[in-house]
Each structure stands twice: as C-alpha cells, then as structure tokens.
Amino acid sequence: MGKRIKEKYREKLEHEEARIERRDRMLIKDKTSEREVFEEVFDKRTLMTLYDLMNDGVISEVIGVVKAGKESRLYWGKGPNGEDLAIKIYLTTSAEFRRGMLPYIEGDPRFKRVKRDTHSLVYVWAQKEFKNLKLAYEAGVKVPKPIAVNKNVLVMEFIGEDGVSAPLLKEVEVKDPKSMYKKILENIKKLYRCGLVHSDLSEYNIMVFDDEVFLFDLSQAVPLEHPMAEEFLMRDLRNLVRFFRKLGLRLPEPESIFKEIVKE
Fold this sequence. Notes:
Blueprint: H1 3-26, H2 34-41, H3 44-55, E1 61-68, E2 72-78, E3 84-90, H4 95-105, H5 118-138, E4 146-150, E5 153-157, E6 160-161, E7 164-165, H6 177-193, E8 196-197, E9 206-209, E10 212-215, E11 222-223, H7 229-246, H8 254-263
Antiparallel strand pairs: 1-2, 2-3, 3-5, 4-5, 6-7, 8-11, 9-10
Helix pairs in contact: 4-5, 7-8
C-alpha cells in the first residue's frame, strides 16, 4: 500500500473514530435505562408519526442519535434522494419542558388558542420551530432549511457531515473574531427584519460549518409583537457581546447595538 493511500486511510479512520466518540458522548449516559429511553422517545404516537413521514416520502431512513437532551432527541436520517436529514423528536413526557414552553407561547399571536395538555403544547412547539425556521430561511438567515413537521417530529437540513453535526461556536477556535461577530450580528439583524427574535441565542446554539455560522434551536423564537421580545433581544445581544469580548474584541455596549437594530 502506497504512502499516500496509507495516509488517506489513516485520516479516514481517525475521522470515523472522532465521529463515533462524539456521537457516543451525546448518547444517554445511563445505559441501564436504554429501554426506558427508547420507550420515552419512540412511543406509539411518535412511531406512527415517523411512519407517516416515511409514507409521505420525506424520510427514507432513521440512522442514529446525534444529540440527546431533556426536551428532545436529534437523529441523523436520510431523505428519498439520499440527502442527510436532521430529525428532531420532541419528548412528550417532560413536565419541566412543558413549563418552560409557556413564556414563549403565551404572547405569540400565532398561537392564541392552545390547549394546555402536554401533547398539544409539544405539537405546537414543533410547529412553532418549523414556522420560525421557514420565516428565517426565506429571509436569508443562516438556519437549517426546514423540510417538514408532523406532530412532535421536525425534519430539517442536516448541518454537518457523515452524521456528525457541525461544532458549536463554543467548541471551535475562532481565528477571526471580528469577522465571526459580524456574521452573527448580521443574522440577528436579518432575523429581526423578518419579524423574529431568537430569544435564547448564545455560543451554545450557533453552529460553525464551512466557515459559515448557522443559528439553530428557533423553537423559542418570538415575533416582535410578543410582550417580551425586546427583553429577549437584549439578552441575546448581551450573550453575544460577552462571548466576543472574552476573545478580545472591543465592542459597543449591548444597549447601543440594540438601538442600532431596532432603528433599521
């Protein structure tokens, strides 16, 4: 085997090992409760929803978990043409999640008549993220392209490679903080111009891929009509300024950036 072929093979192997290690870190840590985790995510309703999406030609395959959180699980899947998909399944059993949703749903004029049972709230939450992503994507904001939503299952473009999601801003070495800051701020402005505030923006829900930034987790994003929209925008800007000041950037105060955005 030639030297170049060996090197290429070694790099491929190292990449695969890194992918598996990263995937495994995101899996549920308590392996004794794997059956409980499976039943929590893939209850009968969720399975039927996935079957519907498969029958509709949206999903052809669900491959494996990418990220496991308290509120949802993110899976890597394939579409009918072999394209990578991110399949987000919201859990319908989390009372804590239900309580956390309400401040972002109440006050949103798009969801005035929402039943308060957990299943109904979770379904609305998934619809909310889909609508927010669609609005943002069509306005040119860098977000995963929304593909479909059905009950508690949201299907999006997969940002990453070979089933490994793109790293978070928190995880990357930012070589050009000024350029990165400008890209994120421009996306915040575009989001505001299309009538939305992210409401939970930080280095933990911005991905970096191919030298581009992608905002994600837009389920809690609210329209400008929401009574707390301005407060949420200020919180987003404080997080942005805090992160980039730690990288050595000299930035205006968040209040000054806020005024600039709302005046445009």
